[in-house]
Write a structure and sequence with these properties.
By secondary structure, the protein is mainly alpha-helical. 77% of the residues lie in helices and 4% in strands. The protein binds zinc ion. Residues 200, 202-203, 205, 226, 228-229, 231 line the site of zinc ion. Zinc ion binds next to loops.
Length: 235
């Protein structure tokens, strides 16, 4: 019966190795890094949009300034012509032209003022987003370090457990290890367990008094198994 005790140690190492593999696959640090990266990508995308809108508003202002320059040139030209014209009808026509150009310039000025406010707003958004990206990059850097540290810790534990496994298995009969491997490969729950009172620690079901008594009667050389889940039992 006691022959199974070292096998139980081996099973516990294998269980720990399996848990480690699961932990490595589901590291919280990996999720944190992914979340931080997603948030930063959102900021970057938003910044691209703001930059485009800012550039468009600035371009509109430039266009308005060119248009206003044309208006001013026209007004100056008509004003000059007005000085030399005597015919009232022509003078009236020129005055109308001046009024139209002045109205256009005034409308352009109003639009430019609106656009300047828009530019100011986008400038603020741009600064804010750039600051957020700087901060987020720091968070990403920290998360990257945290993930590397967590992976390194898991890998060290894996090395330690594998060393322990080699030592433990070198003290167990090769035939017994083969039986253990055969059983282990067919199941997801532990292939070797002990009893806590009457409860099998592999399937967590209780054994009856009769079943317990039968296990105690097993002769040397035979391996006790759980009547419920078929694992080897250290009794
Ligand atoms: Zn069981």
């Amino acid at each position: 019966m006691t022959a199974l005790k070292p096998l139980l140690d081996l099973q516990q190492i294998d269980t720990a190795l399996l848990q480690l593999k699961h932990r490595l696959a589901r590291l919280e640090e990996r999720t944190n890094l992914a979340t931080a990266t997603t948030v930063n990508n959102g900021f970057k995308k938003e910044l691209i949009g703001v930059n485009a809108q800012l550039a468009a508003a600035k371009k509109d202002i430039e266009t308005l300034e060119v248009a206003n320059h044309k208006c001013e040139t026209s007004i100056a030209k008509y004003a000059q012509q007005l000085k030399t014209i005597i015919a009232p009808r022509e003078a009236e026509a020129l005055q109308n032209e001046i009024a139209t150009a002045t109205a256009a310039r005034s409308a352009n000025d109003d639009r430019e003022l609106e656009l300047l406010e828009v530019v100011e707003q986008f400038d603020r958004q741009q600064t804010e987003l750039n600051n957020q990206i700087v901060k987020q990059n720091e968070i990403i850097e920290q998360a990257t370090h945290a993930l590397s540290a967590a992976i390194a810790q898991c890998e060290q534990s894996q090395i330690d457990l594998n060393t322990k496994r080699t030592t433990t298995s070198s003290n167990i009969d090769a035939k017994l290890i083969k039986l253990y491997d055969l059983k282990r490969n067919k199941r997801t729950t532990p292939a070797v367990a002990d009893l806590h009172r009457a409860t099998c620690q592999s399937c967590h079901l209780d054994l009856s008094t009769v079943e317990l008594a039968a296990l105690k009667k097993i002769v040397d050389g035979e391996l006790p198994e759980c009547p419920n889940c078929d694992c080897y039992l250290v009794v």
